[in-house]
Amino acid sequence: MKKILLIVLMGVLxxxxxxxxxxxxxxxxxxxxxxxxxxxxxxxxxxxxxDAEENLSDEQRDKYRDILRKQYTDLTYEIISEDxxxxxxxxxxxxxxxxxxxxxxxxxxxLNDHSEEFYDEFNNYDLSKFLxxxxxxxxxxxxxxxxxxxxxxxxxxxxxxxxxxxxxSDLEKIHGIYEENE
Length: 182
Known about the structure:
Strand order of the largest sheet: 1-2-3-4
Oligomer: single chain
Number of strands: 4
Order of helices and strands: HHHHEEHHEEH
């Protein structure tokens, strides 16, 4: 699931962000608001990735979409500072998201301690049972976590501020799956 989350976000970011404003701060706000407002590009990329996941049933895909929609719409942020240097800026932002990483880690720990609960009638591991369990934990999760992201913002040739590509760790922060020890 962690890879899926990263692929979703990376796809959204690589498509580019038409969320430009007259200030670097405005560009960051517009960028994050694309997630909060479930813009067409965010939803389209999310759907493409979720639909491509081979291990999920249709019901699991729907549940996963709901989890991601909730993650995006409930994301909150606060601009901490802005540092301008001509046509580039760094906008330090504190975001708060659901801690989906904790839910995933809890599911993996439970699997390690109770693997027999995820066996089928032939005593074989049933990935679908585990995915149901993990998705249920993620869906029920209400724990939040806050991260700081330093958004790099540049003025394009038209004089419009745009967020540049984020690092993998910043992408993980938006999805609530960042672990400092990685």
